[in-house]
Amino acid sequence: LTQLTPHENIYTVPNILTFSRLVAAPVIGYLVLHDYHAWAVGLFAYAGITDLVDGYIARRWNLQTVVGTIIDPMADKTLMTILTVCLAIKGALPVWLAGIILGRDVGLGIAAIYYRWISLPPPKTFSRYWDFSLPSAEVHPTTISKYNTALQLALIGATTAMPLLAVDVSTAMKAMHYLVATTTIWSGASYIYTKDAVKILSNEAKKKDKRPEDRE
Length: 216
Description:
Blueprint: H1 13-33, H2 37-60, H3 66-89, H4 95-119, H5 126-129, E1 137-139, H6 143-161, H7 170-193, E2 198-200, H8 201-215
Helix pairs in contact: 1-2, 1-3, 3-4, 3-6, 4-7, 6-7
C-alpha cells in the first residue's frame, strides 16, 4: 500500500497574521523610499505587534504548525531585507552593515532551500516543494539568533524613525551599528555549530517506524 503523506491545516489565525506581516514588508519599503516616515513607522509598529501576537495565539491555543516555523522567520527576514536595502539606498544605513545583514540572510536562505529539498518526502516534485502543508523540516532559531533578530529590528525601527526625531542620536546609532554587525555574524555561525537548529521530520518519522521492529 502507498503511504499517504500527512497534510496539516495551515489556515490558522497565527499564520494569517504572519502572512499579513509578510505582505506589509514591501509597503513599508515603498513608504521609506518616498519619505512617508510617519506611515512607515506606523506600519512597522503593526509588524512588530503582530509578530508578538501570532506567537502568543499559537502557543495559547495550540495552533503551532510546521509552516508557521518557516513563514514566521521568513516574514521577519523579508521585512529586514527590504528595509535594509531601502534604508541603505536612502543613505540612512551604512552600506557595509547592509552587506553583512544581507550576506547572512542569503546564506541562510540557500541552506533553507537545500534542507527543504533533501527532507521533502517522495516523490520530489516542484509543486510538492512549494506545498508547505507537507511538513518536512523544522527550523529552530538559536538563542543568539533570537537576540540578533531583536537587535536588528530595533536598529531598523530606530533608523526608520530617525527623521521624526528632534534630537541627535548619531553616536548611539553608530554604536548600535557595530553591535548588530557582531551579533549578525555570530548568529549566522551559530546555525553551523548548533546541533538541533534544523530538524528533518521525514528522518525522524523513519526512526519511529523502525523502533517497533527492533523490539521484536
